[in-house]
């Protein structure tokens, strides 16, 4: 059985982080322009109709992502800090505000797919105007923290753009491809049998501190007590998930959390999202599933059930971070440009798939939301969600770090979500 295979493997040491010269890090203006350009490049393969549809309330149209990220720059930077700036269109903030109560009324989230107007071309014209208008603000040191937040915010929406359009195209019986090719570097050989990063336990300091950007939910840094544990050196693969499925994993109530078993029964869940026979739905349409690539598009419920079946468990977010502090967050299979994201496997903790933990998304000790509307960014969502760590193949390289906390509801699985096993040591 898989769980026994994992238990028999030799330990692996925790690699040391790679260092990067400061000269290799682009400046704020270059990163801003790169980010704005990538959003538009990701939308190039899509028709106006593709960019308008909304497949479910959790997802948003591509057109809306392009507009909302532009609304963010116009609202929090240009409107508030550029002398004499006038809104591009007075009514558009109502259309493209997301959840900022302090910014007033907004279109209902479930209605975003009804916006046939403005067109993609009109939104691209707005984007060009806002990008150009931001020029003078990029050199203001006082605005640098807010600009860093804007860049990170748009990078998050680039990942959402990719996962949301994948879900939308999946609804089409024709299985249309966004890109003709699946992408390079897919796994072509079996993963190793599974080793472990071991940790002796003790008091660990977690959370962001020191220089560099981080979201407010990553701090304040604080101490936690860890018992001895081990974290798998790789993600669970499609082949291993097939073994779980063939062994009746989706039909065995004892493996599941109560809410998870109810979800399986009510929704008729029998496999990860986008599985059909031996195929996967991808950004390149239906493709033969690679058994050696990491399994993805699973829920927290599914991840927890698999871990129970394998004789293991999910890690806590602090266990994951304790190991990740020894790894390069820019390593692994992450997004480098406008190309189809595809998990392929590796031994690093970052890339391929966001990894479920068993930790609830809660505030750290002494956490305080930021002042003003931007304080709504993370804190008000700290209820009923679970933390994921790492980065996925759709995460812009350089966006994540060891302290980064992603979060979703336990049933959600349209993101590139996977799992890495843990065990008590």
Task: Describe the overall structure.
The chain is 31% helix and 12% strand. With 425 residues, it is of the alpha+beta class. The strands form four sheets. A four-stranded mixed β-sheet has the order 1-2-5-13, with helices on one face. α2 (28-43) packs parallel to α7. The model is unreliable at 1-23 (pLDDT under 50).
Based on the model shown, name its key terms:
alpha+beta; globular; single chain
Secondary structure elements and their pairing?
Layout: H1 2-7, E1 11-12, H2 28-43, H3 48-52, H4 62-81, H5 92-96, H6 120-133, H7 144-170, E2 196-199, E3 202-206, E4 222-226, E5 229-232, H8 238-246, H9 258-267, E6 275-276, E7 279-282, E8 285-288, H10 300-309, H11 317-324, E9 354-360, E10 386-390, E11 406-408, E12 417-418, E13 422-424
Parallel strand pairs: 1-2, 9-12
Antiparallel strand pairs: 2-5, 3-4, 5-13, 6-7, 7-8, 9-10, 10-11
Helix pairs in contact: 2-7, 4-6, 4-7, 9-10
């Amino acid at each position: 059985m898989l769980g026994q295979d994992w238990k028999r493997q030799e330990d692996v040491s925790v690699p040391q982080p790679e260092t990067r010269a400061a000269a290799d890090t682009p400046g704020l203006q270059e990163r801003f322009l790169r980010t704005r350009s990538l959003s538009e490049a990701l939308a190039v393969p899509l028709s106006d109709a593709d960019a308008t549809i909304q497949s479910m309330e959790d997802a948003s149209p591509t057109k809306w992502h392009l507009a909302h990220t532009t609304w963010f720059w116009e609202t929090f930077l240009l409107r508030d800090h550029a002398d004499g700036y006038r809104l591009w269109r007075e009514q558009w903030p109502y259309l493209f505000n997301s959840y900022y109560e302090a910014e007033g009324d907004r279109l209902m989230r479930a209605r975003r797919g009804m916006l046939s107007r403005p067109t993609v071309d009109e939104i691209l014209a707005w984007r060009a105007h806002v990008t150009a208008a931001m020029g003078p603000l990029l050199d203001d040191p006082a605005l640098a923290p807010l600009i860093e937040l804007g860049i990170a915010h748009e990078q998050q929406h680039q990942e959402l753009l990719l996962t949301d359009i994948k879900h939308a195209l999946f609804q089409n019986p024709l299985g249309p491809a966004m890109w003709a090719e699946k992408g390079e570097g897919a796994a072509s050989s079996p993963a190793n049998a599974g080793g472990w990063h071991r940790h002796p336990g003790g008091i660990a300091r977690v959370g962001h501190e020191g220089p560099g950007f981080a979201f407010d939910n990553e701090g304040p840094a604080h101490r936690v007590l860890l018992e001895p544990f081990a974290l798998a050196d790789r993600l669970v693969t499609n082949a291993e998930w097939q073994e779980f499925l063939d062994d009746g994993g989706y039909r065995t109530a004892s493996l599941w959390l109560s809410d998870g078993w109810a979800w399986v029964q009510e929704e008729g869940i029998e496999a990860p999202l986008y599985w059909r026979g031996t195929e996967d739905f991808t950004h390149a349409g239906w493709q033969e599933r690679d058994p050696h690539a990491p399994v993805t598009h699973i829920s927290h419920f599914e991840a927890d059930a698999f871990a129970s079946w394998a004789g293991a468990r999910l890690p806590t977010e602090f266990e994951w971070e304790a190991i990740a502090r020894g790894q390069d967050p820019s390593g692994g299979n992450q997004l480098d440009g406008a190309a189809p994201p595809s998990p392929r496997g590796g031994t690093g903790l970052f890339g391929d798939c966001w990894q479920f933990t068993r930790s609830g998304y809660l505030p750290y000790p002494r956490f305080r939301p930021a002042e003003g509307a931007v304080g709504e960014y993370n804190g008000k969502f700290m209820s009923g969600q679970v933390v994921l760590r790492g980065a996925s193949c759709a995460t812009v390289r350089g966006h994540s770090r060891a302290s980064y906390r992603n979060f979703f509801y336990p049933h959600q699985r349209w993101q590139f979500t996977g799992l890495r096993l843990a065990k008590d040591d």
